[in-house]
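Give me the fold.
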Amino acid sequence: METKVKTIADKEPTIEWCQDFVGGTVAMITLMDGSQLLVNEDGTALKLPHNDKASQIAGQYLVGNALVLRGDARLT
């Protein structure tokens, strides 16, 4: 299974949409630039595949699909 990284900057997505994209409960990582990176909280336990691009963005090992929220898309 190929992992994805999607970036949204124009409007805040619903939490349901975010959960659907990452495939479960959302865990949030705040990046150095203030952006938010969302991943599946249970991704490691579910043995989701490594996401190289998301790992590079966050500076840590991440698995599964990831969603980057910038600007007006950041969750409040």
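The helical segments are 15-22, 52-58.
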